[in-house]
Amino acid sequence: MTKTVFAAVCGYANAGKSSLVNLLVGEKVAIVSEKPQTTRTRINGVLTVDETQYVFTDTPGFHKAQNALSKHMLKSIRSSVTDVDVILLMADCTKKPTLPDLLDEKIDVILLLNKVDLIKDKNQLLLIIDAYCKLYEFKEIIPISVKKQINTEKILPLLNNYAKESEFYFDPELPTDQSEKIWLSEVIREKLLHELYEEIPHGIAVQIELIEYGKTNKGADIVDLSAVIICEKESHKGMIIGKQGGMLKKIGSVARGETEEYFGCKVNMKLWVKVAEDWRNRESLINDFGLRAE
Q1: What is the C-alpha to C-alpha distance for residues 284 and 281, in angstroms, rounded to an integer?
Q2: Quick one: which H or E segment has residue 19?
Q3: Strand ordering across the sheet containing 205-215
Q4: Residue 277: Cβ within 10 Å count
Q5: Given 152, 253, 284, 290, which is the most exposed site by the fewest CB atoms within 10 A?
Q6: Alpha carbon separation from 127 to 112, 124, 220, 265 (Å, rounded)
Q7: Each residue's pLDDT tens digit in the chain (294 positions)?
Q8: CA-angle at 63, arms to 117 and 120, nearest 5°
């Protein structure tokens, strides 16, 4: 008898949602950075253990909508938390206790207080837990550290209580339902997030234009990969390219390393940069980039 459990992983920016999903799945399915709004759409991480399939929906961080893209991100959160068996709400325990107003009271919520490794005083942690208890009626509260893997082993046993008899919805051999193109574009965007200035990454999208499998002259496997980096301003384009193309080469080099690990062979990567002014407020481009809430 096979069972499934769907869990939405939500919370404010930088609470550690994507890192937790990657840890639970056992593979990198979501990109990670310290910049807010790294995750833009719902990403399903899938872990199949024996007869049980766990589906973790990584969601964008809660925030105030500032443009059309932000509104789609918030819609994505709302749809994610209303169509699951349980909500895993992640909170940074080093920040003031506060809750988003998007929780569905009809669905059980488990609070995961992340970054407890940064709290040295246990009495302080008890006060934090007490403060959250006064804000919402959680089914469980677990102090965890994704980075140090403290108490993270307690999550799956709790989720077993929400597993329902059903056929598997996803291939048990795959860790995510993301398409190859989407995952590769996210890998490149992650490198951009790490390398660029604070104001630029929010206005960047990446589209994979070509994935072509071939052979080198010596008969070894090789993948030709080309991608377009879209930014909102001409000045941003110059920063992404960098002096004598230095920044673009750096980003390509780092991204190539991860993609070669993924493909298991040499990757010939070509990157271009294109300006699409104010694309985050242009519904047609949001749709083209696969960022609509639907």
Answers
A1: 9
A2: helix 17-25
A3: 205-215, 221-231, 266-275
A4: 11
A5: 284
A6: 15, 5, 60, 52
A7: 899 999 999 998 889 999 999 999 999 998 888 877 788 777 899 999 999 999 999 888 776 777 888 788 777 777 777 889 999 999 999 999 988 877 777 899 999 999 999 998 889 999 999 999 999 999 999 999 999 999 999 999 999 999 999 999 999 999 998 899 999 999 999 999 999 877 687 889 999 999 999 999 999 999 999 999 999 999 999 999 999 999 999 999 999 999 999 999 999 999 999 999 999 999 998 888 888 766
A8: 15
Cβ(30)–Cβ(189) below 8 Å: no
CA 41 to chain centre: 8
- How many residues belong to the chain? 294
Number of H helices, E strands in the chain: 8, 10
Hey, what are 52's tokens? 């049980």
pTM assigned to the model: 0.89
DSSP-based three-state secondary structure for 48: strand
- Cα distance between residue 263 and residue 213, in whole Å: 10
CB environment 215-251: b (16+ within 10 A), e (fewer):
eeeeeeebbebebbbbbbeeebbebbbeeeeebbeeb
Per-position DSSP letters for 68-80, written without gaps between them? HHHHHHHHHHHHH
- In which region does residue 26 sit, left (phi positive, over 0), alpha (psi from -120 to 50) or beta (all else)? left
Distance CA 126, CA 274 (A): 51
**H or E stretch at 36:** none
Q: Which amino acid is at 107?
A: I
Q: Tokens standing for 281?
A: 């407020």
Positive or negative CA dihedral for 243, 246, 248, 250? negative
DSSP per-residue codes, 118-152: G---HHHHHHHHHHHHTT---SEEEE-BTTTTBSG
